[in-house]
Every structure is written in C-alpha cells, then in structure tokens.
Amino acid sequence: MTATTLPLTSTGPQDEVRPQLRLVVAGSVDDGKSTLVGRLLYDTKSILADQYDAIEAASKRRGAQEVDLALLTDGLRAEREQGITIDVAYRYFTTPARSFILADTPGHTQYTRNTVTGASTADAALILVDVRNGALVQTRRHAAVMALLRVPHVIFAVNKMDAVDWSEERFEEIADQIREIGERLGIEDVRIVPISALTGENVASSTASDGTKAGTWHDGPPLLDILENLDVQAVEQSLPFRFPVQLVIRPRTAEHPDYRGLAGRVSSGRVALGDKVTAHPSGLTSTVTGIDSPQGPLAQAQAGDSVTVLLRDELDVGRGEVLTTPEEPSRTIDEIEGVVAWLDERPSRHNARLLVKVGTKVVRGLLTTVRGHWDVDSLAWTNPGADVALNDIARITVRLSEPVAVDDYATDRSTGAFLLIDPPTGATLAAGMVGDPLAGAPIAAEIEEDDDEDWLGAGSSI
C-alpha cells in the first residue's frame, strides 16, 4: 500500500532557528565556574534588570566590593550562604549566532552524579582550571568523565589570569598539563583558552569590562567565539542513519484514509525520499515515500530534525523500533553489557527487577552482574560483585525481557545510551552506556597493562 502525504497548514513565515549548543561547565571548587557562567549571561545581555538588582543587593549583604555574578547560577540559598555550587544549575542564553543550554555542575567529588547528569547530553564541555593551582586531581576527574561520556568537544578555560598578571609562561605550563590529559584520555577535540571571569577579559571579548586588555600575547579568539563556532552537528550527520520511532500517526480521516506516518527525531545520519530503511528489532524493510515536517514536506531529513517518515509498505512498526539503512543496521540484543553512573540514593541489588529505557522503548530487565567499579582517580576497575551505590560508576550486565536495537556508545551516543528505572516509583536509578565508552583511548590500554597505575597522582600537577 502506498502512503499518501498529509498536507500541513502553514502558519506564516517561520522565525529563524538558531543552532543550539548544549554546554556543561565543570571544574574544581573555587575555580570560578559560577562566576564564568554569570559573566556569560551578563555579557550576552541575558539577565533582566531586576535579576541584576537582586544579585547586586545580595553581593552587598555578603560584603563583596563588586557584583558577584556567580549568584546568577548558585540558585539555592544554601549554596549562596556557603559560596559553593552543589547542584546542576541550568541557564539559557542566546547570541546572534547560537542559542545555548548551559549546565553549571558541582566541583566536589561526592557530586559525581550531578556532573554525569549535566554532561550526558552535552555537545561540548567547558572545564575551568585555576591558573594559580594548575591541573588538579579534580580537573583530571572531570576530564575523565567527559571522555567516558564521549563529549565531542572539550574546552579548558584557564581562569583567573588577572591574578598572575596574564603571564604567558604560566599559561603555557598549564596548557602542557592539559594537552597531556587530553592525549591520554583520547579526547579528540581539546581547546585551551586563557580568561578572567572576574574582569570579563577574553570571555565574550578580548577586552576586560573596564576596557583594558592585559593579555596582549594571546591572539586567539575569546571563549564565546569558540563556543559559537563549534560544529556540533557534523559528527551526528556523518554517522549511520538512526531514527527511533516515537509515535505512529494515523488520522483515519475521510480525506486521508491511508495516511500512516512514523514520527520521531533523526538522532544521527540522514534520510531522503527513495531510501530503503529497515526497522529494528523487527527486521522489516520498506522505502521512504514521504518526509513531513512542521515546515512542510521535505526531500531529506538529517540529525536533529523532528519529522514524520512515510513508508511504501504498511509495516507493523511502532514506538520503540529504530529505522536504519539496510547496509548499516543497529545491533539487536537481549542483554546489555555496559557502564552505568548510579544516580539513586538506594544502592543496586543483585537480580533486581528494573525497567530499562533504550531510545523510545521501555522493557523489563534484571540486573544480573556487577563486573567492576570504576575508580575515577586511578581509572582502574575494582570490586567486582559489589553493589553499586550513589555516585558510583560501574560495569554491569542487564538481562532484558525482549530484544532492543542499540549501538555501542563509543560509536553513537544517541542509540548507545540507556536508563535504569525503578518500576514501583518511576525513579531513575542509573544512566548507562552500551559497551566500553573508553575503547580505543590510550589510557585504556595502559589500564589493561597495569590496573594499579594511578595516572592522576597525589599531587596538584602532572
């Protein structure tokens, strides 16, 4: 049966859609994360006058000589009183070139789950380094988490350059430490930029808030320019086509009795009219005859597009299936071996009954094996069989009640991720990654040779 295209009503001219960047900010305690986020919001004119008045008043109550921009993101009263960040604070801002979803994560080791939460969907990571202290152990931990989560772009902002009179020699010392971290973890795109979040120099522009320019030796772009020009869709579009089906649309109207569309978001790759596609795990194959979008019919769709795909054949395909090309299929499995970050305060239990969400599909599962816990300091796998507790990262095996379509997380983040859910409460227990996310990184080979190697060291620098 040939599918027909459902006409879409135009609502008038469409507003220009800015490309979006999901950015996570991390770093050691007091490296200036919240101040930097506040500076970005302030310099991009993304705060209201009454918000600025409120933080100005709060700054005066705390005895600060200048407005403390960190208060824009440290939203909890406890955080404001202590001057630290203990939760993920999400903020949104736009520039003429791009819109941003920004997550300011905690710096403390015991809040690893918050860092994982903020980084799990990030297109880029921004890790702050205090130029006075260099790359600390916590800097390496955050870089390791970003490598584990396969965040494609990692920018290291060497902050508080004003405190060392913008010393080029000191900056290069820190830059050498950062390059070694990136190389050992296999992070493909590492950027390093000197900034002063306090004065604003080299954040949104090369000059400070008072108009001065201390870092005359630095001829690279400011931080905001780097963020605006990151190509975050190139990787997704170069991957094989993946389309998790969210909904089957069948209006059953007299005007369009044969319309049957599969709605969802193209998670990677691209699809065009006339392409052959295969649904997984069912294995059924058909040809694309139509692609509908809110803007009207399309000749092709690519990663990030939310569309409705029409097929030549009326296949028994619904929510939870994944459309791929026949030449580059996803894997169909009934047991997941992967790595999880445990997010719940209750620890795991052997053979615990779970719900497992993979893409748009939810199936029942059993947590059968804990194969090891990841020591974020040494990057070694230890304590096999031990329950997984809050903030732990562990290798696990989950047996599923029915097959699901997946890819290795190291290959495709969108179809290689999963969630473990508590059936009675619906609470998210853990966020997981199929396979070995660090596969291929130089540090992975070193760990296999010597599990006792503490590559982070006990000191404050490499």
Lay out the secondary structure.
Elements: E1 20-27, H1 33-43, H2 49-61, H3 77-82, E2 89-94, E3 99-104, H4 112-119, E4 124-130, H5 137-148, E5 153-159, H6 168-185, E6 189-194, H7 223-228, H8 234-238, E7 243-249, E8 261-265, E9 270-272, E10 276-280, E11 285-293, E12 296-297, E13 300-302, E14 306-311, E15 322-324, E16 331-342, E17 352-358, E18 361-374, E19 381-382, E20 393-406, E21 417-421, E22 428-434, H9 442-449
Parallel strand pairs: 1-3, 1-4, 4-5, 5-6
Antiparallel strand pairs: 2-3, 7-8, 7-15, 8-14, 9-13, 10-11, 10-15, 11-12, 11-14, 16-20, 16-22, 17-18, 17-21, 18-19, 18-20, 21-22
Summarize the structure.
Residues 18-235 form the Tr-type G domain. This protein has 462 residues and is of the alpha+beta class. The chain contains 9 helices and 22 strands.
